[in-house]
Structures are given as C-alpha cells and as structure tokens.
Amino acid sequence: MRVFEFCEPATDNLQGTTSPTPIDTMSVPWFMAAPASSDCTHCAWCGEESPDMKRCSGCRKIAYCSPKCQKDQWPAHIFDCKVNKPISTVYYLSRDIRNDVIPVDGQTRIDYGFDKASKTLRGDSENNLLSLYKGLFMLGVTEKELRKWQSEGTLVANIKKTYEALPPENRGGYYPWFLQHQDLLDGSPVDPNRATQVSIESNLAMWRKGWAYMGGSPDATELQMKAGLSALSPERTACFMFVSVALSSKRPNPFLPSWLTFGFVSTNCGGAEIGLGGLYQDLVKRCTFDEFCTAYETSTIPALFESKGLGKRDRLFCDVMAGSPRFCKSVWHLKHYIDKVVSSKPGSEHVPSPEAGYDYGYNNCKGIVDWKLLDDLYTKLFAENSGADPLQLHEAFQKGELLEFAKKYVKLAPWTAKYTRLLKTT
Questions:
Q1: Which of the listed residues 163, 180, 315, 383 has the most CB atoms within 10 Å of its CB?
Q2: Which GO terms describe its cellular component (predicted)?
Q3: Which residues are CB-contacts of 95 (< 8 A; sequence separation ≥ 6)?
Q4: pLDDT at 269
C-alpha cells in the first residue's frame, strides 16, 4: 500500500477563487454526505475497493482510493488526523455545519459572527447565520476561500457577491436576513449598551417561561418573580434556571455549573449535547416542576427519563447523574474544565477544581508550559474519536497508572519525561 502526504492540498491555496456552482447541478458537498468507515481495503470516503489504496500518512489509520477522496474528506478528517498543528477555525465552522450545531469554539464564534449575534440579537440569529454559511458551502465556496475572506475582512462583500450571482428567487430566506444584519461580520465592535439590553431581555423572557412552568402567575412583575425565586432552595433554584433554558429551546454552555450537574459534561461538544438538550426539552414537557426537582435532588434524573417514556440514558450520563448535584467523580470535574478550555476565547484563563487538579497532575505543574502540556493531553484524550473512556481514565488514576493510560492514546514524545513527572500520583 502506497502512502501519500495527507495535508491540505497545495493546489487549493488561499489565492484561488471558485465560481458558485448552481445548486441543481453540483455534487453532494462533503458536509451532507455520509462517509464510509475504512478498514484500509475500502476508501474512507466513497467506500469503494481499490488495488491501489493509499493510507493516510498523518494518522495511518484510514486509506483512500484517490487524492480526490482524500481532499473531499479532509475538512472532517482533520480533527482525527494527528497533524500536530493548529486547526483553522473555518474547519470548526464546517464541522458544526455538518452536525447542524451552533459553534461553541470561542475563536470560531468571534471569527464568523456568532459571538456578536448572541450579544446583539435575540431569537434565531445564530441559527440564521449558520444556515447562511451552509448555503455558501452548497454554492461551492470552499473552506480555504471562506478563511481567506475572513482573514482579509471581506466576508460581507464576498457573501453578497456569491449570493447575488443567483436569481433573487433562488437566494433563500437567510440572505435577506443577512442584508439587515451585515454589522455582524463588518468588524465593528459590539455596542455594550445594546449587548446589556439584549441580555436583560433574553434572561427575563426565559425566566417567565420557567416561572409559568413552576406554577407562577403569568402576570407577575419582575420584582414578584425575584421575591418568589429567593424562597427556593439552592437545588430548586438550579432546576428553575435549567428548565427556563430548556423551555426556551436552549441548553447550558460549558461555562455554567449546570453543564456538569445536569450531565452535559458526559458529551463531546460535537453535537451530542444538542441531542441531550432536546431530550431534556421533551422531559420537562412530560413532568411537573416538582417531579423534576425531586429527581434532581435525589440523583434520579436518568430514572425520570425512563419513567416518562424517553428511554434509558447512556452509562456516562448515568455515572455523572448518580451523584449530582452533590458529588461527581473527579474525572468529570476534569472534563468540565477541559470543555471550558476548548470552548474559550483565546487568552481566557480557567482553573480546574481542586479535586481534578490534585488527581490529574495539575498540582505537579511548575509553570505555564507544564500546564499547557496537561491541557493538550486531556483535550486529546477527551476528543470524540480518541477512543479513550473517561471512566477508564478515572480507573487509571485510582490505580496510579495515568501515564500508562495516556500512552495508549496519545503520543507523548518529545515530552515523555515531563509527562512522567506530571502524571505521577501519590
């Protein structure tokens, strides 16, 4: 089996341009296709057998029948391949479009307008923006081109050029919306007064839904709601805040305690959290506020899902919820910390909980280099396709075998000596 270099093809460089391809004649774009699994006898992209298969030289785990298939799958495979270099935010965007989820990566949200949309607009603004970008990919715009536009500050002009090459009746409903909100991508700063007002209005609208769900009067003033909520226990307050979010068709983000206490930490921030959020939305429609609070207080949320006809939950979720809200294994505190790191804007600083810091090596750090090495290691271990199991990681900690566990999934060289010191447990 021959090997070809699996990297971003040099012929598809930042200087290239591509004319929009009519939607009715284009091939199915990569983000709408279902790639086949590869056993190195079948192409990882098209699934065909070939006597001249070429193995990926980056990860050496999958193979392709042609450079074209390699190129077509690269936007997805880049996250699995050990390329040992930063991944451009445009690939996070295209991956999220494939999974039909709003981006959570901090820099991606900044680069492509989602952060600004969340701060200055209400309603479906982020969904509309995601659909606008999906339309660009369907029209033949490549990740390289979109990245070039973003880096040059020409997103607005080129989005207009691409969509206006189509007849008005074929531009869809998201382009007219974009024309009314071009400031999302023009590089202008967020108006702090507008952001504050949007935040207040959005939170109040969510609170009213939760207030009505728990039996409060729909005519209650903001002061009356605050007075009623102040009488709730901490656990019931957490439930109120959570169901308010769920009833608004939203979900917590990794920076909130509810990401941990309601089990979202058991997902991989790659789309699974969307499914869990949807299940919670179904659950609150089938149970009362008191039922939900009782299940939360007694660590029986998984049983409540099952009793309401929503099936059994996976073992990782059940493990988190078995002790929540009072206790979680330190590995889940570690995962919560890493989820925050992965979802943060560049330059953001986070600190793991004391139990995670002690159990997983952060207390052994002598400086920022050590800290970054552990962040990188656990980010790779918790990656969706790493194969590492959080509960097996916890078991390795208990046995004093963190280093041996890490070696199974991550290349530690040239930092093996440092990792040996950092992962030493007493």
A1: 163
A2: nucleus
A3: 75, 76, 79, 270
A4: 62
